[in-house]
């Protein structure tokens, strides 16, 4: 359970995952150094979401290594729950708890998992909410918030336990263009703070702005990777070119 | 090709020539040993708990008497055929009652959820009906109908067999419960489903029949099956009217011999039917929950 200084925060080696007979990830290698942002792009069904879920051990991988600070998360002998507490994930569908106020949504893990006293947990939550202009929503229930507000609360909820790595799974796909921007602004903000992030997205402009590395997935394989300017604006792989051409035609670039 | 996450043995060679790596094999071995450990712990704790319970019963001072008066195997086998005959009547009553309950409760549920103004008086009636029969103990309804109707000296109706009257009482009470379960299923279907169906031009009734009911009923299948299991047991209550079904039959035998084994035999007959049903209900519950969860993850 040791991590040496030179280790990347997250490293995937030859990760393989199938659902039944369908192979959804094959030999995926990925290195995410600390304080960098990796963006995954690709068509729906290319394996982006599955890759994120495999990192967080929401899916059991068939083979390969998922090293977080040098420890294999996929190994049943390691306590996945303990390690997972340091990896935040935000989903496309928000997944806020509808029966709890915004404040309780955010403080739940702090109070129950990390045993932080309620007053202290609420102070942390309110500070985070204030930072993302949500302070006035603390006592509201999720159904009273817009989609963008709900997604920002979901991000705050993930941040509240001070994760070292944040995973974003198409967090803007369920939002309209105006709301998309308020959510993406939060991610940009986190990047400035040096948060390490892996982001699956369909927003190419956003990917260009925030990514240190862009990976294009197709059929469960990373077929092209590199700096955003290279992958998104001058792709060399035919599949990447074809995908970006279609994105362009759809008016999303 | 199927991958068994706990045992690498079931693994068939993959078309792309993949063979699990050494660390994957090590992980599988670890998972196997974890599950073996879990199983041995489960086995040990079961042996300890069950053993302790048996020990407490068997070592109690009254055990020899209880064994002879409740668990007399040869006497039990002797009375089994006659109690089984009574049990067949129980099953027949359940079959008839469940069909009547299904039809009537569907009508009551539909009336209670209907918004049509023409149905308004029936809606009130249905509400009163449900309030009354859900709020009255089943045993009282059986007694009132079983002894009250014959006393009225009505032509035809009052001369009905007590088994029919008892079953009617059960049907009336259960219809109240089941109608409410079905109603909650109907109300649980999201309004957007109704809007989608109506926007396609389906009538109110068609929307109910093809879109709302199929989803609503599926969602309340576990509680409905639960009610069915409890109907199976409650049907025995008609014995208080003197219907010679399994429990009444057991009572007659017990009164002859002062040995309670016939009751145990009757209990076993009920269990033989209810246990598989309960297991089945469990399975339906698990699959219906996992299906709802699948809708939740986009």
List keywords for this structure.
heterodimer; A: 253 residues; alpha/beta; six-stranded mixed sheet; four-stranded antiparallel sheet; 9 helices; 36% helix; B: 298 residues; mainly alpha; 11 helices; 0% strand; flat
Question: What does this entry look like structurally?
Answer:
The complex is a heterodimer of chains A (about 250) and B (about 300). Chain A is of the alpha/beta class and about 250 residues long. Chain A is about 35% helix and about 25% strand. In chain A, β9 (about 215-220) and β10 form a beta hairpin. In chain A, α3 packs across α4 (about 120-130) and α5 (about 145-160) packs parallel to α6 (about 175-190). Chain A starts with 9 loop residues before the first strand and ends with a helix. With about 300 residues, chain B is mainly α. Chain B is built from eleven helices and no strands. Classes of the chains: A alpha/beta (about 250), B mainly alpha (about 300). The interface of A and B includes residues 16, 23, 62 and 77 of A.
In terms of topology, how is this protein built?
The complex is a heterodimer of chains A (253) and B (298).
Chain A: E1 10-19, E2 22-32, E3 37-41, H1 48-55, E4 63-68, E5 71-72, H2 80-84, E6 87-90, H3 102-112, H4 118-131, H5 147-159, E7 165-169, H6 177-192, E8 196-200, H7 204-210, E9 213-218, E10 221-226, H8 228-233, H9 238-249
Parallel strand pairs in A: 3-8, 3-9, 6-7, 7-8
Antiparallel strand pairs in A: 1-2, 1-4, 4-5, 9-10
Helix pairs in contact in A: 3-4, 3-5, 5-6
Chain B: H1 22-58, H2 63-70, H3 73-113, H4 120-135, H5 138-151, H6 162-188, H7 191-199, H8 204-219, H9 221-234, H10 246-257, H11 261-296
């Amino acid at each position: 359970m040791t991590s040496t200084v030179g280790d990347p925060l997250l490293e995937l080696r030859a990760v393989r995952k199938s659902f039944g007979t369908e192979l959804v990830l094959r030999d995926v290698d990925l290195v995410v150094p600390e304080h960098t942002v990796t963006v995954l792009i690709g068509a729906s069904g290319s394996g982006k979401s599955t890759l994120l879920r495999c990192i967080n051990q929401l899916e059991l991988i068939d083979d390969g290594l998922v090293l977080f600070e040098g420890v294999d998360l996929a190994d049943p002998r390691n306590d996945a729950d303990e390690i997972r507490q340091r990896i935040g994930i935000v989903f496309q569908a928000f997944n806020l708890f509808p029966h709890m106020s915004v404040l309780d949504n955010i403080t739940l893990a702090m109070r129950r998992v990390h045993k932080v006293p309620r007053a202290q947990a609420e102070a942390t939550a309110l500070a985070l909410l204030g930072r993302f202009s949500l302070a006035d929503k603390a006592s509201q229930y999720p159904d009273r918030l817009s989609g963008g507000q709900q997604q920002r609360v979901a991000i705050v909820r993930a941040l509240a336990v001070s994760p070292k790595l944040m995973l974003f799974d198409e967090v803007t796909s369920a939002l309209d263009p105006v709301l998309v921007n308020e959510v993406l602004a939060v991610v940009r903000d986190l990047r400035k703070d040096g948060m390490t992030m892996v982001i699956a997205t369909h927003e190419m402009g956003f990917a260009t702005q925030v990514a240190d590395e862009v990976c294009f997935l197709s059929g469960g394989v990373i077929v092209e990777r590199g700096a955003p300017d290279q992958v998104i604006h001058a792709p060399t792989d035919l599949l990447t070119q074809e995908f970006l051409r279609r994105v362009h035609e759809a008016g999303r670039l | 090709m199927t991958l068994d996450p706990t045992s690498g043995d079931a693994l068939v060679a993959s078309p792309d020539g993949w063979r699990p790596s050494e660390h994957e094999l090590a992980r599988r071995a670890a998972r196997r040993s974890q599950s073996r450990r879990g199983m041995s712990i489960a086995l040990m704790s079961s042996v300890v708990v069950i053993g302790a319970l048996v020990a407490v019963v068997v070592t109690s001072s009254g055990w020899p008497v209880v064994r002879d008066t409740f668990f007399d195997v040869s006497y039990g086998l002797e009375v089994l055929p006659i109690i089984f005959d009574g049990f067949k009547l129980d099953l027949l009553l359940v079959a008839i009652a469940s069909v009547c309950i299904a039809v009537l409760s569907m009508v009551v549920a539909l009336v209670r959820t209907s918004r049509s103004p023409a149905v308004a008086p029936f809606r009130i009636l249905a509400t009163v009906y449900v309030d009354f029969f859900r709020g009255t103990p089943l045993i009282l309804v059986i007694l009132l109908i079983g002894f009250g109707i014959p006393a009225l000296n009505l032509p035809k109706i009052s001369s009905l067999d007590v088994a029919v009257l008892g079953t009617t009482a059960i049907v009336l009470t259960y219809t109240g419960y089941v109608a409410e379960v079905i109603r909650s299923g109907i109300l649980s279907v999201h309004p957007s489903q109704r809007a989608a169906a109506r926007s396609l031009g389906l009538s109110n009734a068609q929307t109910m029949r093809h879109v709302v009911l199929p989803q609503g009923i599926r969602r309340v299948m576990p509680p409905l099956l639960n009610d069915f299991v409890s109907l199976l047991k409650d049907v025995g209550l008609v014995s208080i009217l003197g219907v010679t079904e399994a429990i009444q039959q057991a009572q007659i035998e017990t009164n002859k011999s002062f040995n309670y084994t016939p009751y145990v035999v009757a209990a076993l007959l009920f269990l033989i039917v209810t246990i598989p049903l309960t297991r089945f209900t469990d399975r339906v519950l698990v699959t219906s929950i996992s299906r709802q969860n699948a809708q939740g993850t986009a």
